[in-house]
Fold:
Amino acid sequence: MVETAPTDSNIEFKWGEKRSLGGRRRDVQFYNSFFYDGIWYSLYDSVYLYGEGENEPYVGKVIKIWENPDKSRKVKILWFFRPSELENYLGGMTILPNELFIAVGEGIGLANVNPLEAIAGKCNIVCISKDKRNPQPSNEDVEMADFVFSRAFDVGELKLKDTIDDKIAGLEAKYLFNSVKSDVDKVIPFDKKDGKDPASHSDGPIPLMPKSAHIVQEHVKVNEEPVDIMHENKGISAEVILDGKRNFGNEGSCDDRRPLKRAKFGKPKLSKDVDEVKTATSESLARDKSVQRKISNTKSQRLPCEPPFNNDEKTRHDLAKIPPRLEIDKSKWFKELPWEERLRTALEQGTLVLLQNLDPSYTSAEVEDIVRRGFDEGCSAKMIQQAASPVPHSGKAFVIFKRRETAEEVVRKLDTGCLLLPNGRPLISTFGNPCFGKKQLTFAGHLSINDPRLRLNHETREAVATSHCSQPNTLEYDLAMEWRLLQQRSKLAWKMLVKRQERELRQLRATLNPK
Amino acid sequence: MDAGEECAAFQEKVRRTVCISDLSPLVTEPILRTALDQFMSVKSVEFIPNYTNMKNMPRCALVELEDPEHAKLILELISECPLMIGGMPRPVTACPATVGMFADRPQKPGRRIEIQWLEPDDPRFENAQKLKRLAQKHTAEASFLLQCQLIEEQKLAKQHQDVLAANYDKHQKIDSIKGAARRLAQYYDMNVMDD
Structure:
């Protein structure tokens, strides 16, 4: 019997098998499984959890599932640590690239309760411990795994342990090891869910069923349905994008109706950044709190539909051909560095191009669009703000490309070829050469008296720090008038220049569109 | 807010903003704010970054006021009497803000920018290349004019600085010989110290 719980935000949700009632007033309903956003999750599944502002999703094991009387849905998560979170405790230990450490002991960071909606997807974790209790995984299992673990981190003693105790967070160790058949997560595709498939979940209520029996039953059912097993692997590969070593080979075959999920998984990987990882170390043990806080926003974060990847991509090669627009979007998933910082880096790397002869009213987004359509390249652009004495008919923009070669190619193409914008504006480009001037300490036209005796003169200091409208009976007024004269002359000079330039442009443009 | 409204709101913002230029690089937002707050209440201040590699470039800032009318008043005031901010005697100048001065402007709704690559055998190609060269020439001209302007400014500043230094020197010297001068005046029975 499948109960449909009230769903919000249009994410599909169903409860699976019920377990016992709990809580002080027996008003908390525990469950064995649930269906959320296209995937069935069961007790003891490994899952990704999303924290806002985190580069990498957290990884944990679901050890309890329940619904509170107020209909809020909760899961209790036993955490896995990433090596980056334990940097200070690892010493010189060799760590496999995809190794995790399971949390054991007593203390903060072992396990905590999160809203069920914080779960972002399933994760395939294989235990490679040589422990007798652990059914040894096949090489294939290990190959397929997103992560492996064999060691534990004691959150109480803050020590790494090579063995796993019999009980962790009140959970028998056998649930942590690989289960007898395989620990591969079961993903039920959409097209199955209304049909015969959820047999496993429509067996009727099996309250108070012992844990172990349940697990065995799960796996028996998996075997009963070979179709599912096939889907299993595919489903997992969809989630494996997270793991950089894997390629996208199976991508195309996985359920196309869940692009949202894939886009989501792509997200954390991209921004693995040394600094962030370091800060994560200190945060990791205080995670209980932070996860709670972050997770409250998780859902809204997941909902906005990131543009899905092309569904027909079959190979990594194809993947590279995603329209550049997508690349831009991806880059916006992360907090952008301040523009000036990016300019500096781009300048150093030679990826900065200065586009000229743009219409000054173009926006940065429009410039990006022009580059995308003109060169089929993604970039980030920014119009240069015109200062007060500008040539009003020409706008400039800085454009940062991904690679130096692209930038060189664009400059070369625009030099030899000709990209015509509306109003007879051929685009011009040069390598950008912005100057981040050192802070000037003097300013032409602001006078100062170089006399050490005057340093402490109160009046002088005040005059510099404040502003005033000069009165005609002062000396400075006369000087100011001389400045005004110069300013007017410059203004006139600019005006004449602009007028002449516009005339020249008009004449030449007229020849461009002979009517 | 849809694109049209956003655009209208932005236009409104442009109208109530003035661009203050000829600012010293030492002027910071609070200084500018207090300088103008005495006339009109200032809503926001944004300095326009300058990436040209010219020395001694004055800075520009966009000052957003409460109302387009206020912006007009400020413009009038600054053009009438020389307002000096953070130093003397170079006064600041002000002009109405234009769309191009803003960093984040909304896209004009419904505008589609048509672009096309001209093939070398296109009859327009030659002229387009000419236009390109013309635009490059114009950029060079503008940059030259800017340089000239800066040199002129430097000259004027130097001239003022020299005059000031000379005057200061003169007064210092007069001060230092005050005693001797008085005695000489007494001796010749002249009145030089009339103050």
About this structure: Residues 125-176 of chain B form the longest helix (52 residues). Chain B touches chain A through 83 residues (CB under 8 Å).
